[in-house]
Amino acid sequence: MKIAIVTDIHGNSSALRAVLNDIEKNEAEHIYCLGDMVGIGHETNEVLDLLYSRTDVSFVMGNHEEQFVKIAQSRGTENPSEERRHHEWLVSRTDKTFLEKLFQLPRQLSVEHNGKTLLFRHYHLDPRGKFLPIDKNPSGEALDAIYQNVTEDVVCFGHHHPVHFFQTKQRIYLNPGSLGCYDKPLARYAIIHIAEQIDVELKEIPYDNRTFLLKYETLDVPAKNFILRAFHGNQHLKFKPF
C-alpha cells in the first residue's frame, strides 16, 4: 500500500496542485494532511477547495488552523501584531464553509495499514495537548524520548519546515518538509510504502511559483516582506512584475 504525507501547504495552491498531480501518478491510495494548510500564503480558499473536494484525504489541525479558529470566534484585539493582522486578513477572505470545517479538525490521528500503525500530528504535543516548542536540531534519540509511551510504528509530523527522517530501534519519524514554503520552486511531500517493511520516499516536485509570489505585492498581503524573505528566500526579486 502507498500513502502520501503532506504538511505545511501554507496557502500555496500552485505547489499543492503539483503535488496532487504527482500523487495521482504514483497511485497513492490515501493522503494524510498534517496541518497548516492555511496561513502565510494568500490562496486559502483555493487550497481548502482542492483538499476538501477529495474523498481520499484525512486531516489534523496545525497551529495556523488553530489561529484561524481563535480569530473566527473572537472580535479581535486592540493594536494587533503584524502576525495577527495577517491572520485576520486571511480569515476575512476565507469561505465560511471552510472555516466550519477547520473548527472540527482533530489534534492527531492513529491509523493501521497492512498491520503497521502510524501516528499523525502537526507537531509533538505536551501532556495538555499543546504544541511543544520547535526543536531546531532534532534527533532520533530525542524523538524516542518524546514518544516513549506510544506504540505506533511510524510518527509523522510537520510544523518545522525542513525535512526530517529518523529510523530508530523504536520506530520511524518523518517530517516531509513544508510543501508550500521553500526557498526553491519545489514542493515537498513523502510517499510511504507499507508492506512487510516500511519504506519512505521523499519527493520534491518542481512547479512555477512566479504568479503566487508576485501576488503578495499586488494583493498587499499583511507581513508580505517578512513572509517573502523568511519563507520563500526572496525568490520574487528575480521575477519581473506583471
Report on this structure.
There is one protein chain. With 242 residues, the protein is of the alpha/beta class. Helix 3 packs across helix 4. The strands form 2 sheets. Strands 3-2-1-9-10 form a 5-stranded mixed sheet. A 5-stranded mixed sheet has the order 4-5-6-8-7, with no helix packed on it. It contains 8 helices and 10 strands.
Based on DSSP secondary structure assignment, what is the total number of beta strands? 10
Low-confidence residue ranges: none
Give the end-to-end Cα distance, rounded to a whole number of Å: 44 Å
Beta-strand residue fraction: 15-25%
Number of helices: 8
- Describe the biggest sheet? 5 strands, mixed
Q: Summarize the amount of helix as a percent range.
A: 25-40%
Q: What is the gyration radius calculated from CA atoms?
A: 18 Å
Overall pLDDT: 95
The computed structural class is alpha/beta
Inertia-based shape: globular
**SSE run:** EHEHEHHHEEHEEEEEHH
Q: What spatial order of strands do you see in the largest sheet? A: 3-2-1-9-10
Structure characteristics:
242 residues; alpha/beta; five-stranded mixed sheet; 31% helix; globular
Short characterization:
It is built from eight helices and ten strands. The protein has 242 residues and is α/β, with parallel strands linked by helices.
Q: Secondary-structure map with pairings?
A:
Blueprint: E1 2-6, H1 13-26, E2 30-33, H2 44-52, E3 57-59, H3 63-72, H4 82-92, H5 96-103, E4 108-113, E5 116-121, H6 140-146, E6 154-156, E7 164-167, E8 172-175, E9 186-194, E10 198-206, H7 210-218, H8 224-230
Parallel strand pairs: 1-2, 2-3, 5-6, 6-8
Antiparallel strand pairs: 1-9, 4-5, 7-8, 9-10
